């Protein structure tokens, strides 16, 4: 009888231990899902898996359309409305600035640079507001995430800018632009201009040097894509993590000092203002770098 009681007690202890272990694992899993990882989560929406950054992009696009509708409605009612005048002056200043920066470039290059700046700026602002709520409720990170914290999105944007700059180089200079990567026309020079053997040797050395420089140019094109993608990702992701940490720390501090009253959004306002400035700068830098790639392609000789 005592042996049976001992066995039952052992089984109960094992059951309690297993329940505790499972509960601990569930808590860790829940905590892991609620934290911000390097890659976005994918959510099943009607059988279609969408990333959290794509959902945020949709939300930002919808809010931008609503913003334009409100602007159009207010302007139709009163063209001299202060809000309307502010929006007009802001966008006129942005368009004029980038038009001056991209002067001489084709319309698709100007449109791309302007689109990159406005799209990144708007989605960063939407992401900043949303990240405040995600900082208070970490579970929102699984469905909401700033677009620029998706390295895939940044890479697509960077590839588009760099490849269009290369296309513009060919459009501007013709097939001779290929000499930037492969000195093909230098081979044609040897065939069309036969000279003494020493000239051939010097020209072959020139071609080999041109091939080496061309390889460096191709590596630089890849480096442009990587630098654009990783710079934007690193700065925005670090800002999101910093805001989240400040909110959690502020909430814990306020909870210890003033029990029963915990407004975590009061403390990180300075950090939010700083991150707002950083995100505006990052959108500006990304657009300006893409514009500089077009300018380099234009001035190639």
Question: What does this entry look like structurally?
Answer:
By secondary structure, the protein is mostly helical. It has a domain at 92-298. The chain is built from eight helices and two strands, in the order αββααααααα. It has a two-stranded antiparallel ribbon. The chain is globular, with a radius of gyration of 29 Å.
Number of strands: 2
Give the strand order of the largest sheet, numbering strands 1, 2, ... along the chain.
Answer: 1-2
Major β-sheet profile: 2 strands, antiparallel
Oligomer status? single chain
Shape type: globular
Give the H and E element order.
HEEHHHHHHH
How large is the radius of gyration?
A: 29 Å
In short:
With 301 residues, the protein is mainly alpha-helical. The chain has eight helices and two strands; from the N terminus they run αββααααααα.
Describe the SSE topology:
Blueprint lengths: L1 H33 L7 E4 L2 E4 H26 L4 H20 L5 H30 L14 H23 L10 H9 L4 H61 L11 H30 L3
Antiparallel strand pairs: 1-2
Structure characteristics:
301 residues; mainly alpha; 3% strand; two-stranded antiparallel ribbon; globular; disordered N terminus
